[in-house]
Amino acid sequence: MDFDLPQDLKDYLAELDAFIAAEIKPLEAQDDNIRFFDHRREHARTDWDNQGLPRTEWEELLREVRRRADKAGHLRFALPREYGGRDGSNLWMAVIRDHFASMGLGLHNDLQNEHSIIANFPQVLMFQDFGTKAQADEFIPGMLEGRYRICFGLTEPDHGSDATFMETRAVKDGNGWRIDGGKMWTTGMHVASHIMMFARSSGKDGDADGISCFLVDAKDPGVKVEEYYWTFNMPTDHPRISVSNVHVPADAILGEEGKGLAVAQHFVHENRIRQAASSCGAADYCVQESVKYALERKPFGKPLAANQAIQFPLVELATQIRMLRLMIRETAWQMDQMPKPEVEKQLSDKISMCNYWANRLCCEAADRAMQVHGGIGYSRHKPFEHIYRHHRRYRITEGSEEIQMRKVAAWMFGFAGPNRRPRG
Are residues 245 and 272 part of one domain? Predict the structure, then answer.
């Protein structure tokens, strides 16, 4: 059993570091762009007088970073080679996301809005695996070229994790469909061209079948942004929308009619393991910064680091980070050893373990970093409050930690999974 990272992965990390140093850090430093990362970051990013949406200058800067990363051959790393990618594996993506997050805040990787010089592109893979040839030929190049921006309409005001009870309805109307309902947290609506709109097209509440994924024009007059929800970490791009009398053609369904939840779940495992890796890296950053500060700060004539009350909590966090990192990498490697449908059957519980624990651990590490740093740690002149507020959301999104623990428990006790026990 070999625990060393492959040499070509180490070489690629060095290549990414060189690219960040040559292209991204200088851009971060010019034109006072550092305002998006120093103590002014929340204000610099947020247009408070425009519903709390991201400022235009912030999003333009992120687009420029993505353009440079794409030109250098990094942005599409995780995509298949036919789309300009490098067939990036789950292990490589987990290691890269961990590495980026452990570097702290910066233009290279800012997950507050899912930005990274190596992107995820889940919608591209959805069109690849579920779209018709016509849909794939239109939308995949359109997304990669920036002509299309597609947001995700699954959660509703009265339904989140209980997606099978969604109230948005699609009714056959002539040679197409009429959709009515409402959605929550349709992230990115302010710049979206389309929505992946999930609606019940048949069956009854609670049925997994009968929900379809429709491609809806985000500018359709029947689609209305009712309000943008201001969140723990601003800016916001998370609205509640209403959908009224929206007509779409029959070929607007992505995937098989009535099988929309398979589309919705398509990328969940890859995203959860990558998010776990990011949280692990961010936790590591918080601990390492705390160690440095504890060695430098000398109250009462001796370093903070001499106090066991400072040492022991950081030791516990460092130990958990190391164990978690090994589990994430093992699980990501295992994901790469099997076809995607088998991941759900064989590894879903381990992925949930990694994800819920990493997100919780990151929040604990950020909180401890604030405590070690004292007053300056609580201020926005240090990044810990930002890290805490951002990663706190991941204990709710991508499947709340309670939902993920429920998954682990179901597999552990034989209620579901490969060792499911017969009822009775």
Answer: no
